Amino acid sequence: MLNDLFTETWKELECGAREENHPFNICSLATFETPTQIKQRFVNLRKVTKKKSLLFYTDIRSSKIEHLRANPAASVVFYNHLLHLQLFLRGKIKLHTDDELWEDHRLKVDGRSINDYNTKYPPGKKIKNPLEVKRTNDLNFAVLELVPDGIEYLKLRAEPNRLRALFEKKDEEWEKTFLIP
Ligand SMILES: Cc1cc2nc3c(=O)[nH]c(=O)nc-3n(C[C@H](O)[C@H](O)[C@H](O)COP(=O)(O)O)c2cc1C
Predict the structure, then answer these.
(1) Closest CA relative to residue 1, chosen from 179, 178, 180, 149
(2) Which class for 57: exposed (0-12), middle (13-18), buried (19 or more C-beta within 10 A)?
(3) Coiled-coil annotation: which residues (predicted)?
């Protein structure tokens, strides 16, 4: 049964990355803004790789990049209200800014989504007029790869079906156990 929960975890994450309307298409990503302060923000899940890492896109000038350069530790949390399923994943984030993986994903950025990465000034800069955002031909695009080493699965349906499980990566193997919900 633990293996079924693990399989469900990855199946649901893959659906989230593929389907825009899936509840797992969006998650909250937490990073260390300072050594003692956490920041969370929503991001779109773009892909689940064969090696079970999660890919996100961002502007390379956004403040999360600075946070991750200082400390790559990060976590994400997803909630599917239809399944009553919460998934929490923690691990480290690798930044991709000019390698093959980055190149593959940069090619997928087209149409309106180009505007997410081409502002003249960096995201978060103070401006007077939100209707006058200057753009350039540069694409300040980065891929964040979360390599998880711990996952918590929690399904909070009515008793007796409350399920909580922990999956931990040890020496490239996933150890699985149930937890008290
Ligand atoms: C529904 C939703 C989806 C978002 N998706 C992304 C995303 O995929 N990548 C991203 O960098 N920011 C995304 N954002 C904006 C972030 O929440 C955040 O405001 C922005 O990335 C700046 O964060 P930072 O200054 O901590 O780096 C999204 C916001 C919302 C509300």
Answers:
(1) 178
(2) buried
(3) none
| pLDDT tier for residue 157 given thresholds of 50, 70 and 90 | confident
Gap from CA of 43 to ligand 1 centroid (Å)? 5
Query: Per-residue confidence at 97, pLDDT binned at 50, 70, 90?
Result: very high
Q: Which domain holds residue 156?
A: 2-179
Hey, whose CA ends up nearest to atom 6 of ligand 1?
43
CATH number of the domain that residue 85 is part of? 2.30.110.10
> Does ligand 1 lie within 6 Å of residue 51's CB atom?
no
Segment (H or E) for 5: helix 2-18
At 148, the amino acid letter reads: P
- Total structural domains in the chain? 1
